[in-house]
Amino acid sequence: MSRPVFVSVLLEMSASGARHPLAITWEDGSRYEITRSLYVGRRAARSAGSGECWLCRIAGRDIPLYYSPLSGRWWMDGKGDPEPAPAAEPYKRVKDRDYKPAGQ
Amino acid sequence: MKDRVILHVDQNSFYASVEMLRQPSLKTVPCAVAGDPANRHGIVLAKNRLAKRAGIKTGETIWQAKQKCPQLILVPPDYRSYLHFSRLARALYCEYTDRVEPFGIDECWMDLTGCPDHDGFAVAEQLRARVKEELGLTVSVGVSWNKIYAKLGSDLKKPDATTVISRDNYPCIVYSRPVEDLLYVGHATYRKLRRVGIRTIGQLVAAGPHFLRTMFGIVGLSLYSFAAGLDTTPVASSGREIPVKSVGNSITTRHDLYTEQDIKAVTYMLTESVSSRLRDAGMAARTVQVSLRDYQLYNIERQAPLPLPSQLCSEIAPEAFKLIMANFRQGQWIRSLGVRACNLIPLSKLNQESFLPQEKRRQAVWRLENTIDSLRGRYGGLAVRRGILLADRSLTGHDIKNENVIHPIGFFGP
Fold first, then answer.
1. Measured between CB atoms, which of B25, B256, B392 is closest to A84?
2. How many Å apart are CA B103 and CA B123, to the nearest integer?
3. Are the beta carbons of A70 and B81 separated by less than 8 Å?
C-alpha cells in the first residue's frame, strides 16, 4: 500500500513558463536534491489523486512527483497505509419545520 | 453513405469516483456523495460499488439510504473538483475529434466520422486506458452509428468497459433490453407502453411508427427512430455557442417560506442573478416565469408577460413577486422557488433613445444596475446587496449568480 505524502518543493520557473522542481522536503524535514526532472504530463498517482507529474531523479532513482492545480499541493507516493476511511455517523434528522421567522 | 462512428463516454459514478480518487480508503467501505441535509439538499448524488450492492440508489434521501445501510459513509459534494475533472476529461476527448457534445457533467458524445482515428473500438479502448492512467478515473464507452445506441452501449457494461453496437449485432443486443433503458423513455412513457404490453425495445420497434404515432403523437415517431437506430441527430461541435433561450435560477431554501417578506427576499435574490445574467448575454425578457414547489413537493409553474421588454431587476422582480403571491395559498409553504426570464430578444433591437421622462428614469436604473454588476464583478457577489436580503441571511446569503451551474439541455437541443 502507499499513501500520499505532501512535500514542499523548491521550484524553478523558466522564462517560458516551464517548471523544474529542484529539491523537495519530506514530511520528516529531510531535504532531497533533484538531479534531473522530466515532465510527463497528467498521471494518476499510485497512492491517491491525479495531477501533473514529473519524474524526478533523487539519489539515482526516478520517482514521480505530482502537482494538483486544484489544491495547489505537491505530493509523492510514500510507504505505509493510507489514512482509514472515516467512521459512519448515525443519521440525524434536521428539524427544519421547527423554524419560526422572527416576529411571529 | 458510410455509417457514422459515434462514441458515448460515461464516467462511472463520477462524483463518488472523484472522492475515492482523493481518498482511496473510501473504496473499501460503502460510500455516497450526498448534499447537506441542513440546507435540505439531503439526497444521494452518487454512490460507490459497495453502496450500490447495499441497494442504495441515486436520488434517495439520506435517511432512506441510512436505513438500508447504516454503515454508509457520506461525503459532501465538491463541485469545483468535479468540474475540474470533467473539463480535463473533455479536453482529452477533444484530442480525437472536434465534435464533442457534453450531456451533463460526466457524459459526452464524440463523433469520429472522417477523423484520422476513426476506428471506434480502438479509440474507445485507448480513451479508457488514458482516462485511467492520466486522471485515475474509469469510463465506460458505447460505440455505435447513432447517438442513442452509443448511449445505450455505454450503459450496458459498467464500470470501465467498451460495448460496440454494430449493424451486425444490434438486434440481439438492443432488442432484448427493457424499454426504459432507451433515452427519453421516462416514467410516463414507460407506464403508457406497459399498458399496451410493450416491455422491450424490440417490441417497441415491432409496434411500428404508425401505432406509436397514434399513441404519442409526433414524439412517437422519434421514439420509433430512437429504438430502431434510425436517429440522425448530429453530435454538436465542441466550440458551438448555444443560443440562450431563457435565463433562470431556482433555489431550495433552507427552511420553508411562509411569510410575504421571506418570499419577497428570495424572489429578489433570484431575480438579481437572472437580470444580471440577462445583461451579460445582452438580452431582454418579454415574459417572466415563476415555479413554486410546496412542502409536499407539489410543483406549479406560472408565467406572465412583462409590460415592457426588460433586463432590469427592479422591473422583473415585482412582476415575479406578484405572480408568486397570486398563486400562493396560505398553508402551502414554499420549499423551492424559481424565477425565469424567457421569450428573449436581443437588446440591440430595443435601444431607441426616448425623451419621455419615464424612459429617462429607466435609463438611469439601467446604469445603476450595471454599476452594481461591475461592483459585484470586482468585489464579489455579496458586496452590494438589497436591504430586503439582510432580514434573514440563512435564506439569502447566497451568491446565486456565481454558484450557478448550467445543467444539460434536453436531447432535442435549443
1. B25
2. 20
3. yes
B134 is catalytic: no
Q: Do B365 and B384 touch, CB atoms closer than 8 A?
A: no
Q: CB of A37 within 8 A of CB of A21?
A: yes
3-state helix/strand/coil string of B184-201? CCCHHHHHHHHHCCCCEH
> Containing domain of residue B375, as a range?
247-403
In this prediction the ipTM stands at 0.84
Q: Is residue B59 part of a domain?
A: yes
Minimum-distance CB partner of A41 among B29, B74, B134: B134
- Does residue B412 sit within a domain? no
Whether chain A has a CB inside 8 Å of the CB on B156: the answer is: no
- How far away is chain A from the Cα of B73, in angstroms, using its nearest Cα? 5
Predicted pLDDT at A102: 46
Interface test with B, best of A2, A77, A83, A91 (most B CBs within 10 A): A91
Alpha-carbon distance B25 to nearest alpha carbon in chain A (angstroms): 5
Residues B197 and B129 in one domain: yes
Q: Do B211 and B102 have their domain in common? A: yes
Smallest Cβ–Cβ distance between A44 and the set B72, B132, B258 belongs to B132
Count CB atoms within 10 A of the CB of residue B175.
Answer: 16
Q: Are the beta carbons of A85 and B26 separated by less than 8 Å?
A: yes
B408 occurs within a structural domain: no
3-state secondary structure B359-392: HHHHHHHHHHHHHHHHHHHHHCCCCCCCHHHHCC
- Which of A49, A91, A104 has its CB closest to that of B21? A49
Is A22 touching B (CB cutoff 8 A)? Answer: no
What whole-number distance in Å separates Cα of residue B359 and Cα of residue B381? 28
% of residues, chain A, pLDDT over 70: 87
Q: How far is A34 from chain B (nearest CA, A)?
A: 23
Q: Around A36, how many Cα atoms within 13 Å sit in the side-chain half-sphere? A: 6
Domain of residue B251, CATH code: 3.30.1490.100
CB B231, CB A70: distance < 8 Å: no
Q: How far is A10 from chain B (nearest CA, A)?
A: 24
pLDDT (tens digit, 9 = 90+) per residue, B75-121?
A: 888 888 888 999 899 999 999 988 888 888 888 999 998 888 778 89
Whether residue B308 lies inside any domain: the answer is yes
A95 touches chain B (CB under 8 A): no
The domain that contains B48 carries what CATH number?
3.40.1170.60
B398 and B251 in a single domain? The answer is yes
Q: How far apart are CA B43 and CA B37, in angstroms?
A: 8
Last residue in a domain, options B228, B262, B291? B228
B64 touches chain A (CB under 8 A): no
B220 and B260 share one domain: no
pLDDT one-digit tens code per residue, B353-386 = 566 777 788 888 888 998 998 998 888 878 888 8
